[in-house]
Fold:
Amino acid sequence: MARFGYTLMAEQSGPRELVRYARAAEEAGFDFEVSSDHYSPWLTSQGHSAYAWSVLGAVAQVTESVELMTYVTCPTMRYHPAVVAQKAATMQLLSDGRFLLGLGSGESLNEHVVGEGWPGVGTRQAMLEEAVDIIRELHTGELVTFDGEYFRVDSARIWDVPDGGVPIGIAVSGGDSIERFAPIGDHMIAVTPEKDIVTGWDVAHPGDSRKIGQVPISWDPDMDAAIERAHDQFRWFGGGWAVNADLPTPAGFEAASRFVRPEDVAESIACGPDLDALAESVRPFLDAGFTDIALVQIGDEQQERFLAEVAEPLLERVRALG
Structure:
């Protein structure tokens, strides 16, 4: 049975609102909640980008059973992997074992801000592999000294560490990344519903694992308003991750998406009041073999109404598909 989650999208809502939405999403019946981990929004019109780890710590205290997850954290540039290991361990304790650490190789948008440049994809993936090794070692609770190609750790220990560490999901996009990360990750994360990615992961991964994806929707009683909001705040989505990973600023995304029309967005993102149509938008991920799918309700202005009125009947429909 597939599981369905709610996205705490820090780029489109303030931190207090995100905590409130998290509690409402649990009450509405979502199975898990994922949080983006950004320094900047994709587009200026989104207007937010709070620190994800503070938000998640608060969310852990206002929820009881829903699983929490980063979707995704880059542990190589803005954060040193030793710091990510400590944050993840603390989150696992605060949430009573409900936290899953989602990791990826990052986007320039968020990582260039520390002034260390933006390496090529091959280097980014090698850095991520080394970072995962460091996080795993620190989650044993033992004293760790590490001298790698990209990172050093000097006599570090996580003093408050959960039994068994923290499960790790790793974002992959194709054969090379699957070959590198399937042997060291617990679960797979991917942004495109490609069956070959799931199959390749299952072949390369040594045991059972979840396959976690994400689907944006724009619910609104008014179809035109739903499309307008999706175009205003989510037109960056159509660029593809080969582009999205390398643009450095919201201004860059504004420029790259300036010729994207509202009708183009409506072709790729389910918009409007029809819950059956919104539910159908998850089918490609189900058909590809994904086990966990997080929904993104685009925009802040309809978030409370979506959670109060729409989430439960929508969940009934998507669960019927899965």
Q: What stands out?
A: The first strand starts at residue 3 and ends at 8.
